[in-house]
Write a structure and sequence with these properties.
Length: 191
């Protein structure tokens, strides 16, 4: 325009940025731009599960939500968020507030301990070689029927009383008159 009264000027702002930034706003008259420095998010997993975030870039004050996916038989032990200098950021309910620095999120997972219990069994004795096991552990059973009895069936139930399919390996260890002591190893199939 030539600068006379009523002329329209198209002005484009020039923004020189020295590092990564997030720019928001519209370009219309009377509006404003918000410029925020952005920082990177690096993820470290221990191999027994996975942590993830929606974006690997965030700005100071932004809430970052962490998605946690443990492998079968594992649970989340802890999540650590640290900047490059080792300063920790508080994590609450699998989220944190992004500090004014790049961060490293580390996910640590641990095996889930399952309790093994034997129900009282009439007409025989059942023992296990361990009372706590982890996913895909082999559990040894020793089953000794009373004289005149034999094993009719073996049933393994989970915490919700659902029957679990098992693999039985039979090893005869001792023979008494007409009663056989049998030991069984249970192997839980992969899900």
């Amino acid at each position: 325009s030539d600068g006379t009264a009523g002329s329209v000027y198209n002005i484009r702002p020039v923004i020189n940025l020295s590092k990564d930034t997030l720019v928001t706003g519209t370009g219309r008259s009377g509006s404003y731009y918000t410029v925020k420095d952005t920082y990177t998010v690096l993820l470290k997993n221990d191999g027994n599960g996975k942590i993830d975030v929606e974006s690997l870039v965030g700005y100071e004050g932004q809430t970052i939500n962490i998605d946690v996916k443990p492998k079968t038989g594992y649970k989340l032990k802890e999540i650590n968020v640290e900047d490059e200098n080792g300063n920790k950021t508080k994590v609450s309910n699998n989220s944190f507030i992004m500090p004014a620095s790049n961060v490293i999120i580390s996910g640590y997972f641990e095996k889930i301990d399952y309790n093994i219990s034997i129900k009282d069994t009439p007409n025989g004795k059942v023992e296990v070689d361990k009372n706590i096991a982890n996913y895909q552990d082999v559990i040894g059973l020793s089953i000794t029927p009373n004289i005149g009895y034999h094993i009719k069936s073996i049933k393994v139930l989970d915490a919700n009383n659902n029957e679990i399919n098992i693999v039985i390996v039979v090893e005869v260890t001792s023979i008494f008159n007409r009663t056989v002591e049998q030991k069984f190893l249970l192997r839980f199939p992969k899900s």
